[in-house]
Amino acid sequence: MALSEVGSSDFSTKPPPQSPHVSGSGSSSHAFSCVIRVATATCRSTGAFLSHDADVIIEAIGGHEPARTIASVALRRGTKVITANKELVASHGDRLSALAREHDASLDFGAAVGGSAPVISTLRDLVGASTPVSVRGILNGTSNYVISLLERGASLDGALASARELGLAESDCARDLDGRDAAAKLAIIAWIAFGIRPTDLHVRRTSLVPGLERLVRFVSLKGSRVRLIAECRRLPGHGVTAAVEPVIVSSHSAFGRTVLEENRVEVDLGWTSPLSVSGPGAGGSPTAAALLSDLLRDSRPPNDRGAGAAQFHSVDDNCEHPWVVGAQLDATSLQRIAAERGFESECFASESVTSSETDASRARDSALITAPATWKDVQRLVAALESLNGAPWVARYEAETSVERVGFVDERIAFAGEGVASADEKVGVLQ
Q1: Catalytic residue check, 185
Q2: Fewer CB atoms < 10 Å away: N or C end of the chain?
């Protein structure tokens, strides 16, 4: 089995502590020992790997190839395939699922979304019973860990180094920070929840970078939190919107209290409160636990809603939301530019700040909270700010705090090891 950098820590030759999943019967313990032997017998050649006969293939390579080839060949043989590869499922999941049905095989990918949080299994349990109003949550543990450290004053470089040191991030974290990783997971969620093929889902995606350090500091002034939220929502007429974007939430909200590498997903069924699942969403151990759960599943997973289910389709989000828009401009100029484009807004300004994102230059930053507006309207404002070299950033606003003019005080906390948080300092983020 070929594994990614994070995936290579998914399996260990040292057995984990006994758990309810594996301590009850000899067959479960035997299954777990088999996983260990297969995972440590790696093959550099795809052909050599596929030459082995197997009842189950567990894929944790990442990316499209050779993962797609391995999964396709295995399913045509009638082999059970388990994958933690969200890119594979988001790009080829519907075709691989069709192969599984055609050849009486099984495709399971619960480990591809949410890490240890049972997101996919929760949605599968609802298939045929209830269609969600929305599914939204924090789906990327790496970015959430980075944001949590920034909230305590770490630099972006230091937070990323800490995530890599703890095995929570690949050497290239671009997909985690720009929302592509969360968007792939959201496409899988929409497939299970609404029956929309992953490749047909249009996801509005807003990157955390550049501007993340400035965004976190501004939001902290208001006692709020920034979270990268992925959401798909059902509209009248069987339309479904999808977005992955920074969202400013109350620090007392469930998402605001979700810190470090934790994931949290809420499924709104129109009840008084949503169903929610949470758990560590990054690192080898959560992924290994999720893969083991998929391995121990006896029944074929329901990856399709059935021919008689309501048909949904992907649509653009034309709903209006409040937004926070920031730029390296004085408050008066920022509010004037917004007003010229029809925005009603309240503006608050900071004193000059220093951050690694501005190469230690001192630049005055301002931000405003808009009245509800569509994403297209906000894009026009952002484009105008970019034309003035204002280095704008934008986030959806859901916090309940009121707006007032504030001054910025930089109270960054230095971490040991040139900005890299140790394991003990990581725990301190929660205190």
Answers
A1: yes
A2: C
